[in-house]
Amino acid sequence: MTANAILAIDIGGTSVKYGLWQDQKLSNKGSFSTPTTTTTMLTALKEVKNTLEQTAFTNIIGAAVSVPGCVNVTTGSISGISAVDYLNSIPFKDLLSRELNLPVSIQNDANCAALAEHVWGNAKDVNSAAFMIIGTGVGGAIIVNNQLFGGEANFAGEFGYAIMNSTGETLSQLGSPVKMAEKYNQLTDSSTNLTGKEVFTAADNGDQLARKCVNELYDTLSLAAYNLVVNFSPQRLVIGGGVSARQELITELNKRVNDLLKQNGTPLNIDVINCQFLNDANLVGAVCEYLNQKIKQ
Fold it and tell me: Closest by alpha carbon to 104, among 287, 296, 295?
């Protein structure tokens, strides 16, 4: 007997991840490099759907999509500065629905991570939380009174736009492991271009320049996290993105943010933790959004 499943899709600036949601868990996970045009994106996602239906003996009944940018979940339109900007200002939700011949839900990627963690993960026991999702850029989300807070133009939580110094550099420019790696590669004479993960490994292995770049990243993220805490006073600060699996990051943020709170005389203390679902949080949260929309219908 063929089982029903939801196709979960997480579109990022570097890669597109996917998986099947069945029996309250993800399976058949995979990824591919982010295409460069809308047409190639739609074609690639249709190929994923067809392949999964054949190899997993699954009947896919819908697609749950996580995307960067400001998302209107009703119309499916995407706006703002996005890591995949060719999806902006087009009816992407409708286009994908026609391509896959499936009902489709769409939600901002950081909001998806927040939904996953608030419904099933490391923020399910609190009614307010801030989320900082670290990837190619830095995104975020806010839960207030057990609800996502969208704000004007669905822009709430776009923490990556925050200006972090007098030269106008933003949190997404200074707080991303991808940007950290670009800086490291520019400062070395080596022809080998390291990834963010490789720079972390180099730092762990005693590379002093790599350690300096990592510490600068921690400094930036700590300042941003401190500002989030004093502005929103959430019960919990949750860190997402692939780098959230790095325990040193969580340990450093906990120490540095709480030190800043104490040094500046605030009455606050914050628990900084990573997403329970780690790099799958966007996929799981996309499913949450899909199920929520089905309930409303």
Answer: 287
Q: What is the dihedral of CA 280, 184, 219, 224, to 10 degrees?
A: -50
Q: What is the β-pairing status of strands 3-11 and 15-22? A: antiparallel
| Residue 281, Ramachandran bin (φ over 0: left; ψ between -120 and 50: alpha; else beta) | alpha
Looking at every residue in the chain, the average pLDDT score rounds to 91
The mean pLDDT value for 273-287 works out to 91
**Residue 44 and residue 16 in contact, taking contact as beta carbons nearer than 8 Å:** yes
Each residue of 223-273: pLDDT tens digit? 999 999 999 999 999 999 888 889 999 999 999 999 999 999 999 999 999
Q: b/e for 242-261, b at 16 or more Cβ within 10 A?
A: bbbebeebbebbbebbbebb
Asked if pLDDT for residue 1 goes beyond 60, the answer is no
pLDDT above 90 covers a percentage of the chain that reads: 70
| Statement: residue 71 has pLDDT above 90 | no
**Predicted pLDDT at 296:** 66
Query: Which residue in 39, 136, 169 sits closest to 96, CA to CA?
Result: 39
